Amino acid sequence: MNHKERVRAVLSGERPDRLPVSTWGHDFLREGTAEDLAAQTIERQRKFDYDFVKLNPRWTMFAEPWGNRYQPPTEQKFPRLVHKVVTRADDLRSIPVASPDHPVFKEHVRALSLVVEEIGDSVDVLVTVFSPLAVAGLLAGGVGEPLNSYARENTEDLKLALAHISETLARHVEDLIGAGASGVFYAHTQWTSLDVCDAGFFEEFGRPYDRPVLEAASSAPFNMLHVCGNNTSLERYFDYPVQVINWDNFGPGNMSLSEAAGQTDRVVAGGIPHRKIHKMTATELADVVGESVAGIDGNIMLAGGCAVGALVPDDVRRTAAGLPQAINSSP
Known about the structure:
Layout: H1 3-11, E1 21-22, H2 34-48, E2 52-55, E3 69-71, E4 80-83, H3 103-119, E5 124-130, H4 132-140, H5 147-153, H6 155-178, E6 183-187, H7 199-205, H8 207-216, E7 224-227, E8 244-247, H9 257-261, E9 267-272, H10 282-293, E10 300-304, H11 314-321, H12 323-326
Parallel strand pairs: 1-10, 2-5, 5-6, 6-7, 7-8, 8-9, 9-10
Antiparallel strand pairs: 3-4
């Protein structure tokens, strides 16, 4: 099978010739323009020959259209926040619907188009989209506080801001699918962790605003929900309208792959210990991944539970890309 045939076999419940595999991560120094992001994404695919590709933009991108500003990095580190638009709860009422023609959104679409034009015939390209709650958190400066407090102080204004962000992102997703994405990699950042917000908070401020964004991607064949962090109670997300769920199965309080596979008809994606991958020999990595997928009959893709570190060397990434053969786990 080629890459697309292998992925589509798993998505349709059929048996591929081997497990599909991919990892992703930041290259902080090459995310500042559409051309740089596309070039480094294409280069990685040509080096490692993944079964699907995640376009991994700078994590600040989805806050920039509303006015957050960041200092571009000069080393492999996250950009530094220099201005945020939400500094108190009252600021939430000023968050508008942003134009899909904002230069940052157009840059994102252009990067995707360049990648699809170059490698889209041979491999599925997923495009990262942050959830409205994740975007609101960035506008307030991060994950958890201070947005948790703002939600208590000014609930209705936060809901209005989330509705405006959701409408904006839905229109952006339509543009991304139109530009050739096979689907979205839908990320809440750590808002899916019970360490950040309780289940009731997420049900009020997360889930309702996800629906329009994911509906905009409903025509795409390969949408992946990323459930980030520890103590996630993964079963809360089994009804999300996606084909694949990705999480860190090694994280404290998180489900194993086999537990999840036994409870959902969604494809599960994980098994690669992204936090420790650079500390493991090839044999150790194959053993750990093999144990993670043992007993799962086909409904699985191999992937990191989150982004692989920017400084992880190429030989380690190449080892991860070869894991399906190393663990000899053809379904």
